[in-house]
Design brief:
The protein contains 6 helices and 7 strands; from the N terminus they run αβββαβαβαββαα. It is of the alpha+beta class and 221 residues long. α3 crosses α5.
């Protein structure tokens, strides 16, 4: 069967998220890409195609062994990054990579986002690291991203942009939006002399609170 005819539900989810990514302004022009884990591999956006123009049949299937079946568009130049994160992170169901303005500005200074605000914990720890620089589309960038994402759900990429993962494409996109908002806040704090940082103990309390954050529990009768 043609790869384009497989994974209809996952294709629909990812295409919708890519269109939202394009509309959000997080990834201007033809920058940015996203993927979703599927049975036997992953689906990823095609290279050179603006996120807003993505359709389910334009997504590219890459197998678990890294092979790319014929009869498809060319995958994003960053497919190695996505492939590497999925291999190292079984909890990742989807990945969004974008060049959002403030995250990219901090990344170009090679700055991590420290615990200046409790919402930094949404990325899985008490900071959002900045991965070491490597040329886009390379295995070296994939390795650097994997290292920065250790025990984290998002990171900045030096002189490049940001990466966020989630259980679904929608959740990965939401985290990318959160990271951009945090990057903007930190950027503005630096402009007025820098923030007062939360302590490790304070961030540990936040992480504990986050275990039930945003979840609606049915009240027991």
């Amino acid at each position: 069967m043609n790869p384009g005819q497989l994974f209809r539900d996952e294709r629909a989810q990812l295409a919708e998220t890519l269109q939202q990514l394009g509309a959000s302004g997080l990834s201007p022009g033809r920058s940015g890409n996203a993927s979703i884990r599927v049975d036997g591999g992953l689906l990823i956006s095609a290279t050179g195609l603006a996120a807003a123009d993505c359709r389910p049949d334009s997504l590219v299937f890459i197998a678990d062994d890294g092979s790319i079946p014929d009869g498809q568009l060319r995958p994003s130049s960053e497919w190695h990054l996505h492939y590497g994160v999925y291999r190292s992170r079984p909890d990742a169901g989807a990945i969004v990579h974008c060049h959002s303005r403030y995250a990219t500005a901090l990344a170009c200074k090679r700055l991590a986002i420290p615990a200046y605000h409790y919402m930094v914990a949404v990325a899985g720890g008490d900071d959002i690291r900045c991965a070491d620089y490597a040329t886009f589309g390379t295995l070296a960038l994939s390795d650097a991203t994997e290292a920065a994402m250790f025990e984290r759900r998002a990171c900045l990429l030096a002189n490049h942009g940001q990466v966020a993962l989630g259980e679904t494409p929608q959740r990965a996109l939401q985290l990318a939006q959160d990271v951009e908002e945090l990057a903007a806040g930190y950027y503005h704090c630096l402009a007025i002399g820098g923030p007062v940082l939360l302590s490790a103990e304070e961030m540990a309390e936040v992480s504990e609170q986050f275990k039930g954050y945003g979840q609606q529990h049915r009240q027991q009768e």
